[in-house]
Design a protein that fits this description.
single chain; 291 residues; alpha+beta; Phosphorylase Kinase, domain 1; 9 helices; elongated
Length: 291
């Protein structure tokens, strides 16, 4: 669900005729060129990221390397970013290269009436049933998927989409935990808390706001020292209260449950025992804090 934005275009007619306008444009182009190539100009954060991603213009690369040679703190940050990028590529490249599921192709979603979308979701759920998810099969192929099932599908899709991101996995970083919780609570309408999972070896990367099946959803990401990423997706849905269950799909696993019409889905690697350990800690903290 996207909100349309309107971009106003303004035509500025320079004073002094065409000659002055061309001169100003030439001065700007010269200034821009100097900014990119003058080694005396400090290296920006964006340039460091571009350097790590091999997207930095060649004429600026030598300046950045010279800067790093005399700024050990920046060099250490670049080294850590590269190590993290290598870990993420090694662990998630296979997921990133997977084809977009047919049910999520834009053309299909636009052409297909809404009632058929739910049929497609039901078929998808049956395709990845595993562990505790076997209970879904009992409802039958022709029955409509429940609210918690739809929510779990959305959560797994969001997990696979964002765990492969190196530079922009979240909107608000984990270092701003208080702001993140306040913002998501205000936007979502329930008390959103980012659980403390250090005891399981996971640190908060940050979070973002996502569209859920029936309203906004909070999305929190955690990461282990080895680069494994776990996400906690929470959204209101008419789920009532449901006990914790496990399911797996496309190299990812999830523990899902609900309390008072708020659904929770913890997604990560498909190791059921590990997911259960983390999910229990999330459950204990959200139950005590009420969100």
């Amino acid at each position: 669900m996207f909100q349309a934005s309107h971009i106003a275009q303004t035509v500025v007619r320079p004073f002094g005729g065409k000659g002055r306008a061309e001169k100003r444009r030439g001065d700007f182009e010269q200034e821009e060129k100097t900014t990119m190539t003058d080694p005396k100009i400090p290296v920006t954060e964006d340039e460091l990221h571009a350097y790590v991603d091999n997207e930095l213009p060649g004429e600026r690369r030598g300046d950045v390397e010279a800067w790093l040679a005399t700024h050990p703190e920046c060099a250490e940050r670049v080294r850590s970013w590269r190590e993290m990028a290598e870990l993420l590529h090694a662990r998630y490249d296979q997921v990133a290269d997977e084809a977009v599921p047919k049910r999520l192709e834009i053309e299909r979603l636009v052409r297909r009436p809404r009632k058929w979308i739910y049929g497609a979701i039901a078929a998808t759920l049956l395709a990845f049933i595993g562990g505790g998810g076997v209970g879904w099969l009992v409802r039958g192929v022709n029955s409509s998927p429940s609210a918690i099932q739809i929510l779990t599908v959305d959560a797994l899709d969001a997990h696979r989409l964002y765990v492969v991101e190196v530079r922009h996995p979240v909107e608000v970083p984990g270092s701003e935990r208080a702001h993140l919780q306040t913002w998501l609570t205000k936007r979502c309408g329930w008390d959103v808390r980012a659980p403390e999972l250090d005891a399981t070896g996971l640190k908060l990367v940050g979070g973002r706001l996502l569209p859920g099946p029936a309203g906004p959803a909070s999305f929190l990401m955690y990461e282990s020292a080895s680069g494994e990423r776990y996400t906690l997706y929470t959204s209101r849905a008419r789920t009532g209260t449901a006990q914790m269950r496990y399911t797996a799909a496309e190299n990812s696993g999830a523990m899902y449950w609900s309390e008072d019409d708020v659904g929770y889905v913890l997604s990560g690697p498909s190791d059921k025992d590990r997911l259960d350990q983390v999910a229990r800690m999330v459950y204990d903290q959200t139950e005590k804090k009420g969100g």
